[in-house]
Design a protein that fits this description.
Layout: H1 4-20, E1 25-41, E2 44-62, E3 65-71, H2 76-92, H3 125-140, E4 145-164, E5 169-185, E6 192-200, H4 209-222, E7 232-238, H5 240-254, H6 256-260, E8 281-283, E9 306-310, E10 313-314, H7 321-327, E11 335-336, E12 344-345, E13 350-352, H8 359-362, E14 368-376, E15 386-397, E16 400-413, H9 414-419, E17 421-423, E18 433-434, E19 438-446
Parallel strand pairs: 7-14, 13-18
Antiparallel strand pairs: 1-2, 1-4, 2-3, 4-5, 5-6, 7-19, 8-9, 8-13, 9-10, 11-12, 14-15, 15-16, 16-19, 17-19
Helix pairs in contact: 1-2, 3-4
Length: about 450
């Protein structure tokens, strides 16, 4: 099933069907996936899952009107009907001055960049079970761990292909490996849980079961007997595991579609000095073995590395073709294709460049602050930038991490938070969004 050449042929054939059905232009995307996962709890096999899927999505244009449709039935009869139905829908749709395929002169041409996204190793169920058991065993061996929510291991492969009626046909294959565990420490009402996990394109890049299990267990045990925080204004330090969410809010606000709708707190701030000049944020779709690496975007445009924030200054928006037409710009290679519908907008492998000081140095002058290791809820207003989320973590007392604290809220406004943000030098590379330890002064804490 997962053959990139066959996937490209399927996408191209669907575009041909759409043209024969009366479309003026069309593009088609193919997604194929196969995965296997094993879940172990308390040393016993709990769940085995194997899934395989393939689906296509078709977008057609009739004049200035368009329609999108998808299907998991890839028989010839079903695809003929799919194409005819899409064209009929487009003929009934209203005109859209911004609809259309990507500019032909920006399409990815020539050999695609080699990104090393496929690992030839395909572990079977026995190997996955062994890894799941090993990560749970490592976590349960830590003193203070009293129960387990299970260890899991998974592996999969995927294929994406895209074809357009103005000459683009391309596809690529990916692999994935993951390992995770969640455990409980303590007893009764004082129990605390935590987890850890990793994902990678290649098995060789995955952290060991022992490392992941130990990390999850130590996190859970350290959370026992949490105290309360007094309400007030104080410095907040974000663990790298949660700090990436701040970049996520930035990326959502940089989407050209949000800017065009005036539904972003960054409207009118293009080119503005948003962060301190020490902060640079990079997007790299060509990172070898990256979790979001891709040789072309969801419209067939070439992708390229880019500084999203350079020395603190915002460099522009993330745009697919529709957003670029609305904003009078050029698409940036950030179109994203899901299971159906028009392309969305997404960044790829994103990171904040590391600072020049260690995490210990970053917080050395904090007399009274908080180190956040978990964020709860979705209290972020993308239009105003107002930020308020439940949190847990540890007190910082005289520059040192002290006892655990829980049930408090951190609040501010993202514009003010970005201006006050500083970064340590401990950047790691095992997520799609990677950040070092981050510090933001002057946030409001709502505690006891």
């Amino acid at each position: 099933m997962l053959d990139p050449t066959r996937a490209q042929e399927r996408a191209a054939a669907l575009v041909d069907r759409a043209r024969r059905a009366g479309a003026d232009a069309a593009d088609a995307a193919y997604h194929g996936e196969a995965s296997e996962s094993i879940q172990v709890r308390l040393g016993q096999l709990e769940d085995v899952e194997r899934s395989e899927s393939e689906n296509v999505s078709l977008r057609v244009f009739v004049g200035k009107a368009s329609a999108s449709i998808g299907s998991s039935d890839l028989s010839d009869e079903a695809l003929d009907e799919l194409a005819a139905r899409a064209v009929a829908m487009a003929r009934l749709a209203p005109d859209d001055d911004y609809a259309g395929l990507a500019p032909e002169d920006l399409l990815a041409r020539g050999p695609l960049p080699a990104l090393d996204l496929i690992d030839p190793a395909e572990p079977g169920p026995a190997a996955l079970r062994e890894r799941a058991a090993a990560v749970e065993d490592a976590a349960r061996a830590v003193a203070g761990v009293t129960n387990s929510e299970g260890g899991g291991a998974a592996a999969g492969r995927g294929v994406f292909a895209l074809a357009t009626s103005h000459g683009f046909v391309g596809g690529y294959e990916t692999s994935s490996h993951s390992l995770s565990v969640s455990v409980v420490a303590g007893e009764g009402a004082g129990m605390q849980r935590d987890w850890d996990g990793r994902s990678a394109r290649h098995l060789a890049d995955l952290a060991s079961a022992e490392e992941i299990g130990l990390s999850a267990a130590e996190r859970a045990v350290r959370r026992l007997n949490p105290g309360k925080l007094a309400s007030g204004q104080m410095p907040v330090v974000f663990d790298p595991r949660v700090g990436g969410s701040l970049v996520g809010h930035l990326l959502g606000a940089m989407a050209g579609s949000a800017i065009a709708r005036k539904a972003s707190f960054l409207v009118g701030r293009d080119g503005e000095q948003l962060f301190d000049s020490a902060i640079t944020i990079l997007d790299d779709p060509h990172r070898r073995r990256g979790l979001r690496s891709k040789p072309f975007d969801g419209e067939g445009l070439a992708t390229a590395p880019r500084a999203l924030v350079e020395q603190g200054r915002l460099t522009g928006w993330l745009m697919n073709s529709a957003a670029a037409r609305q904003l009078g710009g050029r698409p940036t290679g950030h179109a994203a294709r899901g299971g159906g519908g028009a392309p969305g907008i997404s960044a790829s492998n994103t990171h904040i460049a590391p600072g020049s000081v260690s995490p210990a140095q970053l917080m050395a002058d904090i007399a009274d602050g908080v180190y956040v290791t978990e964020l709860i809820g979705q209290g972020v207003n993308g239009v105003t930038g107002d930020y308020s989320r439940g949190a847990s973590g540890y007190r910082i007392v005289n520059g040192k991490i002290a006892g655990p604290v829980a049930e408090f809220t951190v609040a501010g406004n993202l514009i003010d938070m970005f201006r006050a943000l500083s970064a340590a030098n401990d950047l790691e590379w095992h997520r799609a969004v990677n950040v070092p330890t981050l510090r933001i002064d002057g946030m409001m804490i709502a505690g006891d």
